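BUG: 3D viewer hangs when loading the predicted structure for this chain

Environment: internal workstation, default settings.
Expected: structure renders.
Actual: progress bar stalls at 90%.

Input used:
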Amino acid sequence: MAFQDARLVQILFLSTFLFLGFWTRDWTLRSQVIGVAIAACLLTQFAVQRYREDQPFTPQSFLSPLITSLGLSLLLRVDHCSTMALAGGAAILSKSVFQVGGKHVFNPANFGIVMALLLTGDAWVSPGQWGEEGWYVVLFLATGGLVVGKVGRWDTTLAFLGMYAGLEAVRNVWLGWTWDVWAHRLMSGSLLMFALFMVTDPRSIPNARTGRIIWAGAIALLTFILRNYFFIPTAVFWALFALAPLTILLDRLFPDDRFIWAQNSQTQDSQLEVSV
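Structure tokens produced before the viewer hung:
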């Protein structure tokens, strides 16, 4: 497998982010929890493919669950390893349980996060864990841009960030705040990670560009409402979870080819599952 496969690039970047989290942010990360996340995702993927004979084992089969486990490790905080195991198992199972026309409805990592928040009392997400330092913004834009560019989903990222930034700008003017307040609300590492690595998952977002732009704009609008009027700091994750089924309708209204990734001219085409 060459690094032209965007999943490998994303695994490299997410692993780097975890390393930076340990050394520069002093997170409450524990190696055993990360290990449980990886094990839960990979073992669940193995069990699913053993059960479903139409999914043969290949090395590529475990790239997506590895990405999901790294995403959970970066975003989800838990008091007990069992909670992380629940999140990892639910994330991978969601791809097979909630599926329409061979396409899973929910982003796996987002589904796992929401299930952990709903079903347990010891899970939380810290949207501000990356702070608002400028070099993190540059890092996320550079690395995320490479992955998004490979899968051709810049339209989704720009639609989400553009809509959200616009809504925050209108609110900023309405309240008479200075523009540094607006910039502060946008320069969030977690928000950029969501926009670049999660909302662009080509296996769970609308196939057509028009559908993706409408979908990303709707998520931005709901995020804005939940964050500013219901004061939910984890608004982006709830907005993505709530509006994920909208993909089914948008794919019917704006039909287009499903995302296919050809790893190289000498191998068979494989479907890319870039899922944080």
